[in-house]
Amino acid sequence: MKEQDDPNNTVSFDENVVCPVTGEELTLSGEELISSSGRRYAVADGIPLLYVDENAGASASKKSSPETEVTHTVQDFYEDAPFPNYNTFDSVSTFVRQADAGIFARLLRNQIPLNANVLEVGCGTGQLSNYLAATTVSRVYGADMAVASLQLGHDFARRNGIEGVRFVQTNLFMPPFRPESMDVVISNGVLHHTYDTKKAFVSVSRLVKPGGHIIVGLYNHIGRLRTDVRRVLVRCFGERVLFLDPHLRKDLSPEKRRAWIRDQYYHPQERKHSMSEVVNWFGETGFRFISSIPKISGEFDRDEKLFEPQNPGTHVERIMAEVGMLFSQYGGEGGLFICIGKKMG
Amino acid sequence: MLILGISAFYHDSAACLVEDGRVLCAAQEERFTRKKHDSGFPVNAIRYCLEEVGSGLEGIDHITFYDKPFLKFERLLETYIAFAPLGFRSFRMAMPLWLKEKLYQKLVIRDELRKISPGVDIESRLLFTEHHQSHAASAFFASPFEEAAILTMDGVGEWTTTSTGFGKGNHLEIRKEIRFPHSIGLLYTAFTYHLGFRVNSGEYKVMGLAPYGEPRYVDTITENLIDIKPDGTFRLNMDYFDYCTGLTMINERFESLFGARARKPDEELTQKHMDIAASVKKVTEKIMLDLTRSVQAETGARNLCLAGGVALNCVANGKILRDGRFDRVWVQPASGDAGGAIGAALATYYQFMDQARNAGERDAMSGSFLGPAYSQEEIERRLTAAGARFERYDDAAFIAVVVEALTGAKAVGWFQGRMEFGPRALGARSILGDPRDPSMQKTLNLRVKYRESFRPFAPAVLYEDLAQWFEMESDSPYMLLVADVVKDKRREMSADEQRLFGIDKLNVQRSEIPAVTHVDYSARVQTVHRETNARFHDLLTAFKEKTGCPVLVNTSFNVRGEPIVCTPEDAFRCFMGTGIEVLAIGNCVLHKDEQDKRLQLSYRESFEPD
After folding, report:
1. Which of B45, B355, B551, B582 makes the best surface tag, with the fewest CB within 10 Å?
2. pTM to 2 decimal places
């Protein structure tokens, strides 16, 4: 009999994955993960289902809170249509080449340190996670609450022999990861879809090791103005005005096109933030501002060093950078800005 | 006296330091930036050189820039179009054009150097050499000869494509030049394109393909494409080449000459492609042979020095040697622009400074082991941080463990001492294998290097045992000479096997060391010498004690499209992404099956194919 088939033979699962409620170590027994105090979690098709509602620790009969309602709405939204979905890639090599074309992914690939634990919070269908697992010497965790999305990423990895990536169903307010276990935590375009962006940030920031980095991408309220205008136009005139969206003028598969439209124009929950807000959150949680995309001052280089400290600028300079987004591809394509912080200590 | 030689802005940037005529250190920028053929200003290579002597630029007497007359091929083409009627100028006096003002380049260079050592007076130290002088200088001044004939042959994008000359003591003169666009490199490049390989880096694949074909198209080439004079000088027939648009190398006339369109990179290789490769190789060899014969007759020299990209054509080098016109042949191992940095620095020392030169017993290249080395402590520290699991051994046990892995048919990553300068791995950053294993060539190509299975491997052989295994007398420390496997180690093909064609012949075992024996029994030999690489010599000795075979497969430690590894981290990354099963680094041994599986990566996808 093979080891994993023997229900009496339990093995430690993964030193970085813990019980989301108690933080205890998990052992694998058959198709279940069991915490030391006896909580059980299913593993479905290789994906540990470690999503728990935030009031899961409290009495089981408690009615779900408005916060949990928001989480569930967003969860349903993505279970219906996984984002950003896969093109019908024929191999890892075309997949890697496409991802390489995106400057942010390529910079990460070249600059993530060896032997790093990398967590992508809100990985969706896991493109970035799979890409980083395929091209860097690191252990990658892809976390999302939508199992349908995770399944696509997991299947892609398994089909293409990508080692070193683990997809985990996760509620980012109750993360099933050991605190201070990650060298890099990436959450790009995710936290603003929760009921409280700052609370979400604080929650995932705890997972970063001292000396490790957090990479947060959020919608910017100035940078996203163009999308906001288009959304109003879509409401008034229907989807025929979508030719105005530069992203949709690219060569996309029908699935990817649909996924983008849904995500950008019909999302049930989104909020917008400023760079200064994020800089303040960094300060409050023991992070130092390292760099941002777009840069606060100076031109963005093709070989930009993401993890080398740059000048955080003044409040006014940051607003200027945000206004600049309006006139660049950042504004055209959704107005997302990325801030990178390093945990001190 | 310390002289810093720099080559940059065209192809393969590099830096080197020369002290009193001896090359102290040299490295290519690509090894640090991990961008193949990086042509940027070699900041990292210069910093490395300065670290070796523990000084800033203030401690350097002269900084010599290997000057390329044009920054971009396009500009070269414009110039060619403007000057084409002038064509071939056969004779040119060698005039040292030192300190030629190159305003734009000079400013860039000065600014970059100032960033490295602020406050140092760069202008008074900066010199420029004419580039063809640098090539000839890299061939002659680095050679172990007091007096020698010189032949340089460069690839595409050079102004002087071929030159012959004569060197004596600290003096050298260029006697003949063939100029752009008449270039063997360009001819090769046109065929590289026609055969569907990547221009500027796939040229050596044409060479690798050639042994599988028959040279059926030699007459087609010499009657149409190139006019070869009795002295070996030549002109290309420009009617067949089309690089003016910059998009393709050849035109329809070229294609109709061979009755086939250019092969697409993913199309299958046919016997015809191999025949074309064999033909162009044969033509190249004829030209090289004719040129060396005429330069010998003109100079009366007994020694020959070779440099330039075409000098990497090992088969021709072996033929020149066997032709017997010269007693000894020496090839600069860092041909091309990287070698230009060494030529520039040596020319400064001997010609500009007029220092006496005494050719030593050995050349000035120290086996080409001129790059960074890492101490055992440093290796362990870096490997630990990278998440590697390793075992440390004392010297004797270490060699024994590696020999055991090799005899167990494992691919071994071998990372020892100073990194090689130039395109070849010579036993410092190498992947090694057992040459007696009939499946080793295929395994290494497909599982480790991720490239076409026909690509040949080279043997590293104990210098002391050379004659027992290869028909060759002279040493070949830089893997630049081709020789045949001796008769009693060969295995004749059966009648059935004889009938096989092309790549099917690859699978036929040709000798006791099939992994390094080409279909024509030839091998690109590297002789290993105790004086320049003691540890590699020890390994081969131990391998011989156990197996009776003093030969190992030696291929560069990288995958296709990637520069050779430089640091322990690079080595670990490559190890974790390929079929390399054992990594022998310093005194540490890593086994693949003991590593954290989660750190593995899909290396095959990480680099563009070349």
Report:
1. B355
2. 0.85
